[in-house]
Amino acid sequence: MEAVLTHLREAIERGDYAVGDKLPSEAELCRRLEVSRPVLREALRALQTMGLTASRTGKGTFVISSGPVEDPTFGDYAASDLLEVRRHIEIPVAGYAALRRSAEDLDHLSHLLERMERETDTTAWVAMDTLFHLAVAQAARNPVFRRVIEEIRDALARQSAFLNELGGRREQSNREHRAIVEALADGSEHDAVGAMSHHLERVETTLTSIVRPAAADDRTTAPTEGGQQA
């Protein structure tokens, strides 16, 4: 999927598909790139998240920009807005959770983390990722915190899927989640705040690297329209 996305993204950026152009149909792109429809659809969704294309019901996918937006949107919220709120909510929440968590909270978080570390399906992992952050908020024993996370839950899931599919974040995120759980188990407010801060910093770094890659030659090698590697 990353290779298909890179191929289409670079075609748009160099003008093969100009702003206003309609992309070939899904069937045609699948044939040219020799990929399955689910893989292609994931790549097309990523293009929309980056602000390069827009889907028009019954008409197809159209190019709306020659370069990715610096602040992609996940559901109803821009990435920068999500990150800003998460820094102000989830970092102190982790500290409160370290001081207020119960044995049941720790059992729930540990069990959830173990399932995430075994999970190989991205969709299932993403669902558990949002549950993990809700569980940390629950452990803080303030219902307002949990309500805020509930409000942005869909956007968090969309962002998580985007980062895992394009940034390979799953294993790294599992390690960061484990550090958070260990800090909660130790009852260390300082370590919990530090672990959550690190987690959110890595989310932002990965997102930035996807949307604004340092150089074109650092990108994933993409398939040509004959299915061979470029």
Automatic annotation (TrEMBL):
PROSITE patterns in alphabetical order: HTH_GNTR
Start and end residues of each HTH gntR-type domain: 1-66
Coiled coil ranges: none
SUPFAM superfamilies xref list: GntR ligand-binding domain-like (SSF48008), Winged helix' DNA-binding domain (SSF46785)
The organism's place on the tree of life at top rank: Bacteria
One Pfam family in the UniProt entry: FCD
Keyword Kinase on entry: no
Assigned keywords, A-Z: DNA-binding, Transcription, Transcription regulation
Keyword Zinc-finger set for record: no
Name used for this protein in its record: FadR/GntR family transcriptional regulator
Species of origin: Streptomyces rhizosphaericus
Phylogenetic lineage: Bacteria, Bacillati, Actinomycetota, Actinomycetes, Kitasatosporales
